[in-house]
Amino acid sequence: MELQAVLMAAGGGSRMMDLTYNTPKPLLPVGNRPLIWYPLNLLERVGFEEVIVITTKEVQKALSADHRLKTDVKMRLDVVCIQEEADMGTADALRHIQQKIKTDILVVSCDLITDVALHEVVDLFRAHSATLSMLMSKVHEFTETVPGQKGKKKAGEQRDFVGVDVTGKRLLFMANEADLDEGLVFRKSIMRKHPRMLIKTGLLDAHLYCLKRSVVDFLVHNKSVTSIRGELVPYLVRKQFSKSLNSQNETEDSEKNQKQQDLLSTSKDEALLQLARERSCWNDHRGDMSEAYHGGKLRCYVHIMEEGMCYRVNTLAAYIEANRVVPKLFEDPPIHPGALVSERSLVGSDSIIGPLCQISDRTSIKRSNVGMSTTIKEKVKITNSIIMNGVIIEEGCNIQGSVICNNAVIGRGADIKYCLVGSGQHVEPEGENKIMFGNNNLDISDLFVYTMIVY
Amino acid sequence: NEGKELTKEEKQRLRKEKKQHKKNKKDDKGPPEKEKEKEKASVPAPSKPATQSPAHKAPAPVHASESAAAAEKPAKSKAELRAERRARQDSERTSKQGKKEGGQQSASSKPKATPNELQPVVKRLPEHVQVDDPAALKKLAKKLERQQVPLRSDYGYKVSLFSHLHQYSRKSPPTLQISIPATVIHPSIVRLGLQYSQGIIAGSNARSVALLHTFKQVIQDYSTPPNEELSRDLVNKLSPYISFLSQCRPLSASMGNAIKYIKKEISNIPSQCKEEEAKGKLQACIDSYINEKIILASEAISKYAIEKISDGDVILVYGCSSLVNHILCKAFEKQRKFRVIVVDSRPRLEGREALRRLVKKGIRCTYVLISALSYILPEVSKVFLGAHALLANGYVMSRVGTSQIALVAKAYNVPVLVCCETYKFCERVQTDSFVSNELDDPDDLIVTRNGKSHLENWQTVKSLGLLNLVYDVTPPDFVDLVITDLGMIPCTSVPVVLRVKNVDQ
């Protein structure tokens, strides 16, 4: 087998606690499907037949109960549960399932929504026998207004500095602003081998990695590495240029610990591969006297998506943006056949209604996503909002630019603008809740709503 | 005239005698003799290939080959042989009557007139030079569909002289429709195909070695399904892989010979042989093939070639031939004093890689582009060329530009030596570079200077075609010596070597 897929779905969603304090991140509805469906769909589309899903017990229960998921996803899901309290990093999780891993792996995060042609990433991995191949995308500005945010998004997010070579494929340098003191520090060996390097900052890491089997063995021997993105990837990128005095880096030391049989066959094959490389008149760089890849055995590659959709739903802004964009991806009918929509209601063409909904007369729904089993009574106006599953909205409400979480109840005549109503909350009837855009004014009733959410 | 003078009875008598003679022969050689007579009669009418029914023509060459094969199997009883043959011919005739293939007809309308001592091999036009024939394309599409190999579509406008060849773009990789992870096609083969199509493994020797290495891995991972024999099933398993590789990049002559060798070795595995033993045997065969035909051959060729290099020589090389580089490095180690002129050409600019390797060794080099060839040639004392394949009529198939080098060198009376291992000898016959060639990605010809590429939108100009040829053929008159592992032979002795090889096998 060539690749095994590993889906990391145990993360907490720490950057959008408002949404995830009650619902685990993999089950958040985006476009009326659980978030975890999107990476699973991506893997299924390219041809995977089974996926190892690392998640918590809660999510596993929900997954096995979700009928729609069962019918939609035809792959075999091998669900591995880990304790939520153990606070495992992604690398720790890989160490945990080390026994199951028999070949190279493709690690995907559960919050990735993308339409990338996956063969671009995997072809880099295959053709260059790379140790790491990852996906990055140009960051798109978010256009939707986010409840609770005043003004444009500050550049509070730490920037990522990514250095690639002239072809734009080989990954030479990766550092996060948080790890740097004053400036970027480059090793001379990188500059000697690749005198022309392009440094990009506006890139989003999609958390999709192809890793060689030997990396998993390396993780087993180095228990200090906890996170793939935070520690493992920068380590591998740095190790490409480490002095070959150490010559075999740790990944190859662990390769020696493999079964003797493997070793014997690979050494002869290695000699043949080496012969083929020597006889081939190809080089990946020009201008110096070294052979292809500078003789290095560790290579990291990146595919940078210029166009196309790539979202990581780990912040509220990303969640809202994804909800906006995703319905256009799929050809599902916007109004699910299982929903009861009254004829005298107005549902815009860019809204989607989930199954088992009840939409009463004289309601108007524009540019919104309405989740499963939601009841919307008469004379309700919903614009630019996201309504999750099981919500009850009484008559005469006016909801604008807001996010209403699972099982909330909005009382009669409530006027909600740019708010986030948490799971299971009740909003008072006739409550006026609005946040002035760009202004620090908050009504008392807003505070009331927020205190209930934050508690 | 003589016939007219003979009386009717005498003619009849003659005919009876002939028939009797034939009947006696029939008991020795079987029915094909009669068909050979029919064949001889049909050959003088090659001008009407289209009107003849395919059933008449197509079995004829089949019979010819089978007759030769029959003569070599005296072990089986003649009656059994005859019965088998008849059954096979019947089935083939009915299947061929169903199809009307223009390409097949034109090819089979020139069967070998007389079976000579060489095995008359049935030659059909390979599909990769019939791209402008929709029937052949359909056949190829059906075959690929059956093997579950994705069909790679051609790209861009093709110059009319070369419209019978495939032209692929690097931007549409062959893995577009291959599932991730690759299940139908072995992952190593997918990797190899990608490396071929992106040019990471380029050069005749490198491609063959990589192919054999991958076959070793395929054989390692192979397990015989129940009720199947390894000798037959493994060959069937390899066919879709080979189709996939030829979709990525057309197979080279050396690869073709290597594949023939492997298939022969696999079919020769006795059925009692256990799977592990058979696999080990095959791996050993592959290792010994590489060792003999490539590694040891290059050592032998270096030894012969070094005799031809004297002190003070100025040697001209073209492009990056792994064998020529090896020879020059070995000669340098043996303390010969010479300098090298590396000639290079766009768009591949492989000479840069050759230059790097030679300079790294310490050899004094000069680098020119092929347009400066006639300027630099008066300085040159010898020309060493590598070859992609040596054809049966003595023509040398090599990187495009080689024939120019040989031509100009001949004009300046500079000796041209071609270095080629015997496993690259192929039985094809070609006198021009049009019939069978390879078209590379036309976008490689686009050059960007100061951020501007003038040819960027070449597809919008209807009358413009970009042609990126890969190979050309050099006539034997321009080549003075061919250095092979069997020795130094003139170009015209290639058919002799081929014959000797065939007899050995």
Automatic annotation (TrEMBL), chain A:
Tagged with keyword Protein biosynthesis: yes
Residue span, EIF2B subunit epsilon/gamma LbH domain: 341-429
A GO cellular component annotation in the UniProt record: cytosol
Predominant cellular place of this UniProt entry's protein: cytoplasm
GO molecular function, one term: guanyl-nucleotide exchange factor activity
Domain Nucleotidyl transferase intervals: 5-141
Location of this chain's protein in the cell: Cytoplasm, Cytosol
BP-aspect Gene Ontology terms: cytoplasmic translational initiation
TM spans (from-to): none
Keywords: Cytoplasm, Initiation factor, Protein biosynthesis
Keyword Nucleotide-binding found: no
Subunit structure: Component of the translation initiation factor 2B (eIF2B) complex which is a heterodecamer of two sets of five different subunits: alpha, beta, gamma, delta and epsilon. Subunits alpha, beta and delta comprise a regulatory subcomplex and subunits epsilon and gamma comprise a catalytic subcomplex. Within the complex, the hexameric regulatory complex resides at the center, with the two heterodimeric catalytic subcomplexes bound on opposite sides.
Function: Acts as a component of the translation initiation factor 2B (eIF2B) complex, which catalyzes the exchange of GDP for GTP on the eukaryotic initiation factor 2 (eIF2) complex gamma subunit. Its guanine nucleotide exchange factor activity is repressed when bound to eIF2 complex phosphorylated on the alpha subunit, thereby limiting the amount of methionyl-initiator methionine tRNA available to the ribosome and consequently global translation is repressed.
UniProt record similarity statement: Belongs to the eIF-2B gamma/epsilon subunits family.
UniProt name for this protein: Translation initiation factor eIF2B subunit gamma
Gene behind this protein: LOC109058481
Automatic annotation (TrEMBL), chain B:
Classification via Gene3D superfamilies: Translation initiation factor eif-2b, domain 2 (3.40.50.10470)
Low complexity bias spans: 58-72
Molecular function terms from GO: guanyl-nucleotide exchange factor activity; translation initiation factor activity
Pfam families, per the entry: IF-2B (PF01008)
Keywords, sorted A to Z: Cytoplasm, Initiation factor, Protein biosynthesis
Function: Acts as a component of the translation initiation factor 2B (eIF2B) complex, which catalyzes the exchange of GDP for GTP on eukaryotic initiation factor 2 (eIF2) gamma subunit. Its guanine nucleotide exchange factor activity is repressed when bound to eIF2 complex phosphorylated on the alpha subunit, thereby limiting the amount of methionyl-initiator methionine tRNA available to the ribosome and consequently global translation is repressed.
Protein name: Translation initiation factor eIF2B subunit delta
